[in-house]
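During the reporting period, our protein records have gained a structure token line. One record among many is quoted in full directly below:
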Amino acid sequence: MDNNRITVIVGLVCISTIISWLMVKGKKNAEQMGNCVYGFPKKIPVGMLAVDFMAIVFLLILLFRDFGFMSVIFAAIAVLAVYIITRDGGNYKYFGVYEKGIIAPSALIFYEDIMTFPVFELPLDEQAHYPKNTLVVVTKTKGKQEIVFDSEEQCQKVVEELKGLEIIKNSEGNVL
């Protein structure tokens, strides 16, 4: 078996392992968060599927074209692209506000880890300068996190749910 075939096989095994692992990890994270209080709209991330498909096509091209050592680098790029895009969007069906935290694109935040919501501590005129579809959270372990939602309405619904759970507090610990 030539080197290109080995590279492609290893790349495809890595991609399938990454996708499977991230799906299992997403389900486990959702179970740790408890019951879902508010689930985000479940729309299939077409961009993620397109990148995954293109990465596989990219790998399969290596079967027909010899790039020498660059084939290994191309395969690594394809595997890395699948990891990054699947990590961010692969668990879209679990996105939402839970009893113990929030699962959002690129964010997994437990309430016990939240220190403050800095934008809500600003005067109303200064809050107007921040995007209406973004929720800024400062956590103990990850620092400043910006959760970007699809729409302003979705962000407002999440804020309402967090206020209902008495999660949004200022730096003194008072519920906002």
